[in-house]
Amino acid sequence: MCVWSGASLRLEALDIDHALPWSARPCGDLWNLVLASRRVNQHEKRDQLPSAPTLAQAREPILAWWRTAWDADAALAEQF
């Protein structure tokens, strides 16, 4: 699921997005990488900081993504 729009994702139409864009904070840390719709990432959010309401709305999807991506691997969970 796209953390920004809530849309279901297909492999051919997803991006790994920097939640806080590289232009604002050059950070490739795991916590800053989220699943996003390619359309949203490349045409709507782009290199902008998400607004406070957008971040608040994305809170649960981001936490769910972190749990799925990083907690499933013991080594990553410890590091993360």
From TrEMBL:
What InterPro entries does this protein's entry cite? HNH_nuc
Q: Where does the HNH nuclease domain start and stop, copy by copy?
A: 2-50
What highest taxon heads this organism's lineage? Bacteria
Pfam families per the record? HNH_4
Which CDD domains does this UniProt record tie to the protein? HNHc
**Protein known as:** HNH nuclease domain-containing protein
Q: Which organism is it from?
A: Methylobacterium aquaticum
